TrEMBL record:
Pfam families: Lipase_GDSL_2. InterPro entries: Ester_Hydrolysis_Enzymes, SGNH_hydro, SGNH_hydro_sf. It comes from the Bacteria. One of its GO terms (molecular function) is phosphatidylcholine lysophospholipase activity. This is Arylesterase. Residues 52-212 form the SGNH hydrolase-type esterase domain.
């Protein structure tokens, strides 16, 4: 008899312990539901902006934090904009190269795109008509995807002659006119090109201060681009 009573006591004790554990868990969850989420707002995910470009985007001669994409992201965040710049720059790339790797670059699923190509076309003296066709294809494909786009223009080196320079720069103005939905930033290196204090010794690629200046000057255009992002 004593043994049966002892077994019942142990079983009852186990049931009571389990019941207390469940009651404690329920109390914890109910308190957590009331107190933990209050005052804590879910932070929105950053807007992803792809920067499709060449060596300037790739940060030639610079550490990654010094390069234009990182400097642009830092400037935007300092301005209160939650943005991640996806760097898709390839040194030496032309507009044809950018066109060929566009689909690969879009695998990162950006919500907006900066097209910063053309510098190497100018350095190589490629026919502006070819640059125009390549960039027009890129812009059309981005438009078909509904991706807000910023087109950054470029100028040709002066040693190629005034006629070539005019035709080359006209390429970007023509594209901007034909794609009014795109934000147009006429010259990527505005305020930096030709300034020894803002360029590396090759006088082509911005140094850290130059990249920072490019980012600063691009801020208004980037704000306009981000305003076009759905839900941005």
């Amino acid at each position: 008899m004593a043994s049966g009573t002892s077994g019942m006591t142990r079983r009852y004790g186990r049931r009571a312990a389990v019941r207390r554990a469940f009651l404690g868990l329920g109390l914890f969850l109910s308190v957590s539901a009331v107190t933990w989420p209050q005052g804590v707002e879910a932070q929105p995910a950053p807007i992803r902006v792809l920067m499709l470009g060449d060596s300037i985007t790739a940060g030639y001669g610079l550490a990654k934090p010094e390069a234009l994409p990182a400097q642009l992201e830092a400037a935007l965040k300092a301005a209160g904009l939650n943005v991640t710049i996806i760097e898709a720059g390839v040194s030496g790339d032309t507009t044809a190269g950018g066109k060929s790797r566009l689909e690969w670059a879009l695998a990162d699923q950006p919500q907006a795109v900066v097209v910063a190509l053309g510098g190497n076309d100018g350095l190589r003296g490629l026919a502006p008509a070819e640059s125009y066709a390549n960039l027009a294809d890129i812009l059309a494909r981005l438009q078909a995807r509904g991706l807000p786009t910023l087109l950054a223009g470029m100028l040709a080196p002066p040693n190629l002659g005034a006629d070539y320079g005019r035709e080359f720069s006209e390429t970007f103005r023509k594209l901007a006119a034909e794609h009014p939905g795109a934000v147009f930033y006429p010259f990527l290196l505005d305020g930096v090109a030709g300034d020894p204090a803002l360029n590396q010794p090759d006088r082509i690629h911005p140094n850290p201060a130059g990249a920072q200046e490019v980012a600063r000057r691009m801020l208004p255009a980037m704000r306009e681009l981000l305003s076009k992002v759905q839900g941005g």
